[in-house]
Design brief:
The protein is an alpha/beta fold. It is built from eleven helices and eight strands.
Length: 254
């Protein structure tokens, strides 16, 4: 098996829609035939499991950290039903239990632990690509993810605070030697000049922008209940997301 490609999805602030974008990218990658792993590394405030229909996951990354069970028993097959999925999606969820969150906040974990978990997950699930959904901001989790990823995908909104925070993160990532960096704008108003925005952020951060996703009331109405791209396959958001994934696929297969 070729070495799995690791993508860390990150945003400087919360509220960018990072987890929603990450989950839907995972679904589109699996549709193309890839075996995709998703890790919720935002253990103080886990949430991506809900998008995969796992409101109370029976097994979590916390159980591995606490040595309650091994990595082979810790991930969940969350591939949507239907013949169109040629690949698979496996989720390594964070525990939403208050006691587990309090413990991880108090005791933490080591970089070596997380790297061992990533490696074990990739091997046990025979992954082609691993998506790391990170905790917003600059913190240990972010540094872990940047250290091991092949691509850092920065998700930001057309917001001055996001612009400034993204600049800080991009600078840190480059100092840490991240192999590749791409940007993705989310929650942009359709009334804005998207081409100008794209050109501006590419010039500002000296990195390609994979696309711009519109602010969408339809996504809000779903309230995080499932994978929007699969529920609404012809929606403009889904079309835009597919265009983003089409740019990721050559990187993954290179």
């Amino acid at each position: 098996m070729a070495t799995p490609y690791i993508i860390a999805t990150h945003s400087y602030r919360g509220g960018t829609g990072k987890s929603n974008v990450t989950a839907n990218i995972a679904a589109e990658l699996a549709l193309s035939g890839l075996r995709v792993g998703v890790v919720d590394t935002d253990l103080p405030s886990p949430g991506i499991h809900i998008l995969f229909g796992q409101d109370e996951p029976a097994v979590t990354i916390n159980g591995v950290i606490d040595q309650e069970y091994g990595i082979a028993k810790a991930f969940i097959d969350v591939t949507p039903a239907g013949p169109s999925f040629l690949g698979k999606i496996f989720l390594l969820a964070g525990s939403p239990k208050p006691s587990d969150i309090a413990k991880i906040v108090k005791e933490g974990y080591t970089m070596d632990q997380m790297i061992d978990i990533y490696r074990g997950f990739m091997k046990a699930a025979a992954l082609d690509v691993l998506l790391l959904d990170t905790h917003p901001g600059i913190n240990e989790t972010t540094l872990f993810s940047i250290t091991v990823c092949d691509l850092l995908l920065m998700i930001l909104r057309p917001d001055r605070q996001d612009y400034q925070g993204t600049a800080v993160t991009v600078d840190v990532a480059r100092k840490l030697g991240v192999p590749d960096l791409r940007l993705l704008m989310n929650k942009a108003l359709t009334s804005l000049d998207w081409q100008t925005i794209k050109s501006t952020i590419e010039a500002t951060y000296q990195a390609p922008c994979l696309g711009i996703l519109a602010q969408n009331d339809d996504i809000m109405r779903y309230g995080g209940s499932g994978l929007f791209s699969q529920q609404e396959p012809t929606h403009p958001f889904t079309v835009q997301l597919k265009a983003v994934v089409s740019q990721l696929l050559p990187l993954i297969s290179a």
